Amino acid sequence: MGILEIYGTKSSNLKGKRILIGVTGSIAAIEVPHLIREIIRHSGEPIVVLSPEATRFVAIDALTWCMDKPPITEISGLSEHIKWTVDPNSKIDLCMICPASANTISKLANGIADTSVTLVSLAAIGAKIPVLIVPAAHTVLLENPVTERNVLFLKELGAYFSPVSEDEKKFKFPPLEQLMTLIFQILLPKKFLTGKRFLISGGATREYFDNVRFLSNPSTGFTALQICKALVAEGAEIMFILGEGNNIKDEYNAFKTMIVRSTSDMYNLIHEELSNGDYHGFISVAAVSDYKPEFSKGKIASEQQDLFIRIVPTIKIIDKVRTQYPNLYILAFKAEVGVSESELITRGRKLLNSKNLNIVCANWVGEPEKGFIAKTNEVFILRKGKEEVIHLKTRKDQIAHNLVKLIIEDFQLGGGV
Predict the structure, then answer these.
(1) Beta bridge partners of residue 171, listed in sequence order
(2) What does the alpha-carbon distance between residue 83 and residue 73 come to, in Å, rounded to a whole number?
(3) Is the separation of the CB atoms in 383 and 332 below 8 Å?
(4) When comparing pLDDT for 305 and 16, which is higher?
(5) For residue 195, how far is the Cα from the chain centroid?
(6) Cα(196)–Cα(160) distance, integer angstroms
(7) Which one, 15, 126, 329, 387, has the greatest CB density within 10 A?
(8) Percentage of the residues of the chain whose pLDDT score is greater than 70
(9) What does residue 196 show for φ and ψ, rounded to 5 degrees?
(10) For residue range 224-244, what is the model confidence (pLDDT) as tens digits?
(11) Long-range contacts of range 79-84, CB-CB < 8 Å, 24 or more positions apart?
(12) pLDDT value of position 160
């Protein structure tokens, strides 16, 4: 499939943006073709420069196919590195070293420009063009004083580093969505929530009554995921706490995410994060269990004709968070089944006022195209100090977008912490 068939199919976020990708000698280079295509899908123009070692891991023909033009393997007499960093008609908007070996990081930190990649990168730093470094190497190469010193020095010069993804004692290529989110944050105009940190809970919790069976609900965490995306799009930093058993793994990998099991596990992690982190807001979307059964170790025998299990209330996360953090900005969801519209709004407003929340999003669940597994929902948004009820019946991503707009409005008016 040629680039014209995929150009702009996901967004126009990178339209007019030239992104130079410097590829160095790492096996993670095999992931670069996917990055190239994703940049094109968001309307960007990729330029690929290879170090001699990179050609051992990724084929020139493969890269040529990905972007309908060959990569650069040598800087010629045309001084491409100067053209890309100085000439207004050819200037790049972002220089990525992706993947960046420990060797390349150290060379760049010490001003060594002995490959096409390090030469272009050094020129980009000198021209004050944003530089994004995506490390990929064994932990013994990245987690040592020499490399750590070089990374710190490059950060002091203004270079960005992608969060590393450690697995099997190696720092591997990060998830594609995570990398694209970082590119957007660097290249797109400053957002309204830049510098703000939010903690978001989503999905269902599980309360086990023996080692194999549990009580839960069908929540997938999809609405919380859309809110994460909308917050990040406006420059916010987030931590996503998600109940296990969801089906959105490929998408939540783009964010800092922690998986929990029970309601108490979720509360403990929320409390830990709020205690240790400088958060500006808590977005409570998770469909937590209101009750938990008494636990029986092992597996309850299946031959029983009648089984009686005692259940007790779980911890009320919103109550605890509001008591412990009286000034924290909180948005919560209020889910109901089988009540009238007026009763749904009444119950939502009661939650808003009794817990001194900033926003309550009241909705029905268990109905077609509403709540839980549906991609659409119908919600009634209630706000602190406002009588207006905002009624939305649309896709969950649009609901998330509207909620984040209200959060921005509150923070601009001083309603946020």
Answers:
(1) 137, 166
(2) 16
(3) no
(4) 16
(5) 15
(6) 19
(7) 329
(8) 94
(9) -100, 145
(10) 999 999 998 898 999 999 998
(11) 80/120, 81/116, 81/119, 81/120, 81/123, 82/123, 84/18, 84/20, 84/47, 84/120, 84/123, 84/124
(12) 93
C-alpha to C-alpha distance for 80 and 202, rounded to whole angstroms: 48
Q: How confident is the model at residue 170, as a pLDDT? A: 59
Alpha carbon 388 to its chain's center: 32
CA distance 44 to 52: 26
Q: Dump pLDDT digits (tens) for 281-324.
A: 999 999 999 999 999 999 988 888 888 889 999 999 999 999 99
Domain 3-187 belongs to what topology? Rossmann fold (3.40.50)
Categorize the per-residue pLDDT at 277 as very low, low, confident or very high, splitting at 50, 70 and 90: confident
Tens-place pLDDT, residues 397-414: 999 999 999 999 999 876
Which is nearest to 319 in space by CA: 386, 267, 277? 267
Give pLDDT, residue 142. 81
**What torsion, rounded to 10 degrees, do the Cα atoms 149, 155, 157, 160 define?**
140
- Helices 102-109, 145-156: crossing angle, 10 deg rounding: 50
Q: What is the CATH number of domain 197-412?
A: 3.40.50.10300
DSSP code per residue over 107-129? HHHTT---SHHHHHHHHHHHTT-
Where along the chain do its domains lie? 3-187, 197-412
In sequence order, which residues have a C-beta less than 8 Å from that of residue 234 and are 6 or more positions away? 191, 192, 193, 194, 404, 408
CB 12 within 8 A of CB 85: no
> What is this structure's pTM?
0.63
Return d(Cα 41, Cα 6) in angstroms, integer: 5
With beta carbons less than 8 A apart as the criterion, state whether 282 and 323 touch.
no
For residue 83, the one-letter residue type is: K
Per the CB < 8 A criterion, the answer to whether 84 and 47 are in contact is: yes
Of 68, 57, 71, 60, nearest to 5 by C-alpha is 68
Whether the predicted pLDDT of 108 surpasses 70: yes
End-to-end Cα spacing for the chain: 49
The tokens describing 184, both together, are 């957007």
- Tell me if 3-187 shares its fold with 197-412: yes
